Every structure is written in C-alpha cells, then in structure tokens.
Amino acid sequence: MSDDKKPADWKTYDEFAAGIATNRLAPTASLVGTTQMIQLDARSITLAFEDAHRVRVTDAASGDGTEWCEVIEVAPSTYFVDITFQHRPLQSMTAIVNTLSRRALVIECEVRSPQEAGAEPRVAQTFLVGRLAGGEASGLVPHESRDLIGLRTWQTYSPNHTYEHTYLSSQRYCWQCLVGVQRGHGDVDMATYYKFAEDQYLFTFREFLIPVASVFFFNFASGRSTGKFLGLTGAGAIANSPAGALMQKASQTLYSSQIEPV
C-alpha cells in the first residue's frame, strides 16, 4: 500500500518492533549436533545444526546452504526453528518440530513486489505439514483450526508493548495497541491458525498497511507467545525480527452454528 493511503502517524515496521522481543523465551542449543529431516508431501528438508545460529539446509526446492538460524524450545521437546537465507533475503522459513511425537509444520514467508502482491498483503505465507524422519509419528496431526475464533488475548511483549488480539474468523484477526508507540492504532489483517498439539497453536498474520507478516507459536499452558516478523523497514531494508510475549486470555465470544464466522 502506498504511503498516501496510510494514516499520517502510522508507524513503520522498525518503529513498532524495537524492543518487542523483551519477553521472548531464550534460544536453546539443544539441537546443536543433531540432524533433523522433515518429510513433506512433495519434498524433504534436512536441517543439520552446526551451532546455535548456523544450520546446514538441504532442500530439493531451494538447494543447499549454510544459513542463519535460531532455535527456541517453546514446549517440552517442541522447537521453534527460524531460518533466513543469505542469498534469498526476501524469504524465510520457520519450522515447528516435536522430536518426540515427530510432528512438524513448516511456514515459508516471502516479501513480494507490490505488482506481484496486487491487492493482497505484500508478504505471502505457505504452510506445509510434515513429520520427522527416523521413526513413526504419533499424536495429533497439525491442521488448520477454528479453535481460536472468538478468542480475545492480551499480548505483552515488553513494558512498552501490549497489544490486544481478537481472532475474528478463519481468515482474519483484529489488533489494537494498548501500550506502546502504536497506542490507539489498530486494524484487521489476514490470519491463519494451525493446531499443533493440545493447548499449542500456530498463529500468523499478514498486514495490509505495511509490508510485514508474523509467525507465532502460542503455548496456552505456559502463557507464552514466541515468534518473529519478516518485512521491510521504513527505509525499505529487509528485516527478520524476533518477538515474544506474555500471553493472557481476556474473553471468549461463542457463536451458534447459524451465525458463526467463516
């Protein structure tokens, strides 16, 4: 969206994201020295973790390379693995893997040109369900979910960042800033939800007003939200920024089958 269609005081990605990782869980080195092969329907992705921030990626769709990564244990044996690509800076990959159940979910993000995006958000996302090789997968298969529809949460990323989310439908969510530089701002953007396990969900959104999208893992049992943003700063630079919040359920709207959202 062009600048003349945004409110005059609308904040850029880098302006609102500063400090938004304050309440994020710390990275872990638990996967260093291990190799995890994610088997998808159409391809496999092998991740060989060399150190805390370096992974060797072998992927038939995108080729091989040693890339930057960050790994966070977001639930017991469940890891949020975020990867950026040095030769493909407009793209990123986030994998949620459970090394016990062997379930996996891969989210690919790409910042598109305004011409390619058209009327859609600039950042596109693709969701791929898979499993880890080397054993039988067990438990719930990750799948798109309607469980969050009607829920309202408060997300406190830092003393200077509190946002209210309302998950409106299977396609959209509403946000407003309660504390921070965006206080008083709010919007409705495109969203996708996957259930990963009991009390564990993937939540992503894609903004219209600025070129940014997010990938978050919600662990309602621990009250933690762990994620990242991929987008363009006010100067037009690509940025893949960490984020994390203390999460609290605020209310729940219940719908009858005759009037439920899409």
Automatic annotation (TrEMBL):
Residues 9-111 form the Molybdenum cofactor biosynthesis protein F N-terminal domain. Residues 143-253 form the MoaF C-terminal domain. Pfam families: MoaF, MoaF_C. InterPro entries: MoaF_C (IPR035348), MoaF_N (IPR024724). This is Molybdenum cofactor biosynthesis protein F. It comes from Duganella radicis.
